[in-house]
Design goal:
The longest helix has 19 residues, at about 15-30. By secondary structure, the protein is α+β, with helices and mostly antiparallel strands. The chain has helices spanning about 15-30, 35-40, 85-100, 115-120; strands at about 1-5, 5-10, 50-55, 60-65, 70-75, 105-110, 125, 130, 135-140. The chain contains 4 helices and 9 strands; from the N terminus they run ββααβββαβαβββ. A hairpin with a 3-residue loop joins β1 and β2. It has one domain: Aminopeptidase (3-Layer(aba) Sandwich). Strands 1, 2, 3, 4, 5, 6, 7, 8 and 9 form a 9-stranded mixed β-sheet that branches.
């Protein structure tokens, strides 16, 4: 576990932390962004490594999913916690996890409004824009 100012990033598993991970993803993707349930719950969660951001009270405030092949996905931060470093901490931990496993090429699918956030971490756009769940995305890569 990594302690930040008023939150921590924890490596999590779907088997132990599904309720907390679901709460964040439902709030951000399903309720806020109107992502259809069948797209959000794609069957990849049980075999993935998850990162969970928890506030001082132990409440889930953010998450990310690492499939294991160098891809980062399902990164979400509750609205009240955006702009406070939670997303940056999740992204840094995700990159660190892959680097520890000698995975050199890391990629993610970013909503276009978040391109500059990922660019600050060194990611570069590596695809044309496309629609995913009716939201404009681009693929981004970190070598």
């Amino acid at each position: 576990m990594e302690l930040k100012q008023n939150f921590m990033i924890k490596v999590a598993s779907w088997q132990k932390h599904a309720e907390l991970l679901k709460a964040v993803r439902e709030a951000v993707f399903i309720k806020e962004q109107q992502v259809p349930l069948e797209l959000e719950w794609d069957g990849l969660d049980t075999s993935a490594l998850h990162l969970l951001a928890l506030n001082d009270a132990g409440e889930a405030i953010g998450c990310a999913r690492l499939i294991g092949d160098g891809s980062i996905g399902r990164m979400a931060v509750l609205k009240a916690w955006r702009g406070l470093g939670v997303g940056t901490a999740l992204l840094e931990k995700a990159v660190e996890c892959y680097r520890q496993h000698n995975i050199a090429s890391i990629r993610l699918s970013a909503q276009v409004h978040a391109i500059s956030f990922y660019e600050k971490a060194g990611f570069k756009v590596c695809s044309a824009p496309y629609l995913d769940a009716n939201i404009l995305h681009v693929d981004m890569c970190l070598e």
